[in-house]
């Protein structure tokens, strides 16, 4: 145990013991762990724990998904994940099953990493979590530690603990001790984020659970990762607060970019200058078409909903959400202005569909809203993305999906950059201008130097880096 780990217990208090002395499962270096839910979080967690030497079984109710995983097919694109999964499957440390009961019964520690999507009113839908709690409670065959990974409203771990306990047959005398251990990984860099996390947060109420978690995450503690051991509620709040704050940082710089548009300041210089202040930092100050993905939109809405339920005003979070929606509409307005006011029958090349680079994920991608608005105004959309087109085809018909930047841009009235893929960042602007019908470019990710664009003869706009130059 590192000094930091000990320190964290001293700082965050003394906790109770759920397990009686003779009930404690034996702590072992290599643990038997099940992970319920094989989305980004569950799969990365399972493969990474196996990489550390634990015996891991990943379970999911989706049989097709499990069958794919058993055949070595990863259901989404994540750099490095395929190799990590394969090597641990080959070493017999990682298994996949659709038999959730068997997975739970054959392991001492159960991680729950199921989805908590937004429901109609914005509240996080924790029904999948409740369903797993029921399965665990009803099928408990020994004392276990149950650790929630899914992002949840503050207070949910305690709620799930009560629910799970209500399903345990009192005759068998088994105990489940709970933990909440938030995941901070980003899609596209998930493996690196897991092994080099800025901090490890464990919410629990039981000394035994804290010890178990330290053992499980020993490699992180050995590399001096700051460990925060705290209550369920504080751990849950750390996750919600982190995501809401990052989303707010993005909405802040997006609005500031709009002010730069109106004043002639260059937002990239402004962000650089701000970021040098250590209290602010340079990360998450890149303006764009708005934040998307599976976390920020869902978690800001969930947080706002929880605040409303509790009568706590979260005006900053509310403004963050509102500003994000407006940012997408602002991109549409900029495109409209570039093509002369009407989008009717304008051929638009959309470059990039995923919510950010290095992922095929399109959940809450700004491109969905932007393309929807363009289509509604009569534009013809030719889109290209290196990875996300298959996913987008399933939800957005009425778009011509093209197999290259060139194919999407050929004879287009305007090219619109929506995702910061390296391939799009590096595209040959001299070549592009020759294949477009008109030399018009909307750089909604600020990938190109405005001076270069104007020297090449583009009519262009961006997010707060400088006014369009009409050749
Ligand atoms: C996020 C959090 O970063 C991660 O800690 C959490 O576990 C899950 O949610 P992710 O959704 O994978 O991760 O993507 P992230 O890299 O955070 O980007 C989110 C969105 O913000 C993207 O749409 C991205 O393009 C946008 N963004 C990010 C900006 O517009 N500007 C920035 O400066 C940074």
Number of helices: 20
Overall pLDDT level: 93
Secondary structure category: alpha/beta
Shape: elongated
Model description:
The chain has an 8-stranded mixed β-sheet, sandwiched between helices. Strands 11-10-9-12-13-14 form a 6-stranded parallel β-sheet, with helices on both faces. The protein has helices at residues 3-12, 40-51, 63-70, 81-90, 100-105, 127-138, 156-167, 190-195, 207-216, 218-222, 232-263, 267-275, 296-310, 315-338, 366-376, 389-395, 405-409, 422-425, 429-435, 450-456; strands spanning 32-36, 55-59, 94-97, 109-112, 144-148, 176-180, 199-204, 226-230, 347-351, 380-384, 400-401, 414-417, 440-443, 459-462. It is of the alpha/beta class. Helix 20 (450-456) links the parallel strand 13 (440-443) and strand 14. Helix 6 (127-138) packs parallel to helix 7 and helix 14 packs across helix 15 (366-376). Helices cover 45% and strands 13% of the residues. It binds uridine-5'-diphosphate-xylopyranose (UDX). Residues 183-187, 243, 246, 250, 284-286, 288, 291-293, 295-296, 355-356 line the site of uridine-5'-diphosphate-xylopyranose (UDX).
What's the quick description here?
The chain is 45% helix and 13% strand.
Topology readout:
Layout lengths: L2 H10 L19 E5 L3 H12 L3 E5 L3 H8 L10 H10 L3 E4 L2 H6 L3 E4 L14 H12 L5 E5 L7 H12 L8 E5 L9 H6 L3 E6 L2 H10 L1 H5 L3 E5 L1 H32 L3 H9 L20 H15 L4 H24 L8 E5 L14 H11 L3 E5 L4 H7 L4 E2 L3 H5 L4 E4 L4 H4 L3 H7 L4 E4 L6 H7 L2 E4 L9
Parallel strand pairs: 1-2, 1-4, 2-3, 4-5, 5-6, 7-8, 9-10, 9-12, 10-11, 12-13, 13-14
Antiparallel strand pairs: 6-7
Helix pairs in contact: 2-4, 6-7, 11-13, 11-14, 13-14, 14-15
This protein binds uridine-5'-diphosphate-xylopyranose.
Uridine-5'-diphosphate-xylopyranose (UDX) binds next to helix 11.
